[in-house]
Amino acid sequence: MSIEVANLFKTYESKKRPPVHALNGLDIRFPKGSMSAIMGPSGCGKSTLLNILAGIDLPTSGSVRVDGQDIAQCPDGVRSRFRNQKIGYVLQGFELIESMSVRENVALPLLFSTQSLRNKKQRVARCLGKVGLQGYEERPAAHLSGGQKQRVAIARALIMEPSILLADEPTGSLDSRTALEIMEVLSELNREGRTVVVVTHNPEVAKLCAARYKMLDGKIQV
Questions:
Q1: Those residues with Cβ within 8 angstroms of residue 61's Cβ, 6 or more apart along the chain or in another chain
Q2: Distance from C-alpha of 180 to C-alpha of 34, rounded to nearest angstrom
Q3: Helix (H, G, I), strand (E, B) or coil at 194
Q4: Cα 178 from chain centroid?
C-alpha cells in the first residue's frame, strides 16, 4: 500500500504551557513496497508522524492518504479497523508483557478474533518462523534477550498480515550486530511486498533502507 502525506500539521495544546507544534506542513510519500528511513533529532516529530500514519493519533490539519483513502478523515471505527488489519507497528522498547509467553504476546492482537485456537496457534508459529524464533512459543518473554524480544515484537506486528509495517527505533536498545540482524528481518519483510517505514537515530541502520529522509522542526528537509 502507498502512503501520501500532504501539508500535515499537528499541534498539542496545553492550558499551562505554550502550544507545541510537532508537525509543520509536512509532505512525504512512501510508494507501495518501499523501505524508508526517517532520521532526525529527538523532538523533531518522527514518532508523532508514525502515530498519525498508524491512525493512532489525528493531525490538526492535512491529509494522510493510504491507497488514495484519507484515513485522517475516516470515522473512529473505520480508522480502528484500518489500524488492526493494515498496519503493523513495532513500538520502541518492545512493549512485551514479561509475565506472558512468547505465544501469548504475539497472539495479543487476535484476542477478539473469532478464529479457532488451532488457526491462531498456526498463525503465531508462522509469524515466529518469519523472525527466526521457531520453537520459542512457550518461552516466557522475561527470559529472552533484547534481540529476541524485538523479534517477538515484530512477529506480533505481523500477526494480522499487514500491508504496512511501521517501526519506531527498532534497534535503539540493541548492540550493532543484533541491530543488523533485526534490519535484515525487516528487509526480508519488505521484499515480500510490504511498505516499511523505520524511524531511527542510527545512520548505519538508515543506510539499509532504499529511501532516507531527515526531519527537523516538524518538516522533511529537502
A1: 7, 8, 9
A2: 19
A3: coil
A4: 19
